[in-house]
Amino acid sequence: MNISVVIPLLNEEESLPELAAWIEKVCKEHKFSYEIIFVDDGSTDNSWKVIEELSAKNECVKGIKFRRNYGKSAALNEGFTYSTGSVVITMDADLQDSPDEIPGLYKMITEEKFDLVSGYKKKRYDPITKTIPTKFFNAATRLMSGIQLNDFNCGLKAYRSSVVKSIEVYGEMHRYIPVIAKRAGFPKIGERVVQHQERKYGVTKFGINRFINGFLDLLTISFITKFGRKPMHLFGAIGTLFFLIGGVISFWLIIAKQIAIYQSMPYRDVVDQPLFYLALTSMVIGSQLFLAGFLGELIARTNPERNSYHVEERIGVE
After folding, report:
1. Which residues 6+ apart lie within 8 Å of 311 measured at CB?
2. Does an H or E element contain 310, and which?
3. DSSP secondary structure, 223-262, as one string
4. pLDDT in tens, 38-51
5. Is 134 exposed, middle or buried (0-12, 13-18, 19+ CB in 10 A)?
6. Which of 75, 164, 175, 74 shows the shortest CA–CA distance to 116?
7. How far is CA 10 from the centre of its chain?
8. Cα-Cα-Cα-Cα dihedral of 248, 253, 258, 262, to 10°?
9. Which of 68, 85, 226, 287 has the most CB atoms around it within 10 Å of its CB?
10. Residues 240-285: pLDDT tens digits?
């Protein structure tokens, strides 16, 4: 199969028939074999009934229904699991992503050999309360990941099938899939300017809490990808540094007191000096961080996936 279109949704009953018909029209025009996987993330309207009706009319339409709302990342991850196309395309269900972009995205994956292509909504129809925070987090993500994309959060993306089968998406990490893919060994990430359309039905699911959660998830991804298998390299290094700073200060205070005694000069007891307590605090924090790294190493070594790696090809071995 050429294309799997994975569409997470929440209360989008009005837009689903038009979206499904649009995707069908585009794929038939370009002679793509395709499937549409709607993932109902706990909708409280008639979205699932609409999906059932669409599936009855078109065998290419498939559906997955969650018992409750788990979030976009969970919906995408489930859709990725059941996708069978050589190219997987994701888009939102609110008709703000245009299916007319599918051929261009498909070509970049199949002919230009990109692992992942992210849409870039250069001209947006969102309110300023959404666009300004989005620009801030895109800049922060570029800085921390080294991936030069203008719009990490664009729902319209295309993936080589091996990418979505090699990654796990959870929490609010759907907006950082390019970062996850790069860490999993898929460095060829491209971008394509796509059309952004005004919302036609329903209301936006946007909330300011998504940026708070998104920032925390960015920190999580950065930590796990760099130190998930070797936590001692972070906690042990910082802990050792804190302990050494505290130890050096304490040693200096003791030596300074001994010199003052030897030269019959006035002096203060080491324990009477505020600097001593700062040094002691530094040593305690350093010890705790070192122990945290040590415990992290023990946990990492008992992880059944500690030697689970993404192998692309094998020759002569089974």
Report:
1. none
2. none
3. HHHHHSS-THHHHHHHHHHHHHHHHHHHHHHHHHHHHHHH
4. 999 999 999 999 99
5. buried
6. 164
7. 20
8. 120
9. 85
10. 999 999 999 999 988 888 888 888 778 778 778 888 899 999 999 9
Phi, psi of 80 (to 5 degrees): -60, -40
Q: What angle do CA 174, 2, 309 make, to 5 degrees?
A: 50
HSE value, Cβ hemisphere, 13 Å, CA-based, for 223: 12
**How distant is the alpha carbon of residue 52 from its chain centre?**
31
CA distance 91 to 79: 12
* Phi (first) and psi of residue 232, to 5 degrees: -65, -30
| 294 CB neighbour count, 10 Å cutoff | 15
Find residue 3's DSSP bridge partners: 34, 87
The token pair at 100 is 């007319």
On whether the CB atoms of residues 109 and 158 are closer than 8 A, the answer is yes
* CB 185 within 8 Å of CB 162: no
Across residues 73-88, what is the average pLDDT?
94
Q: Residue 94: which of 129, 57, 47 has the closest Cα?
A: 47
Q: What are phi and psi of 29, to 5 degrees?
A: -60, -35
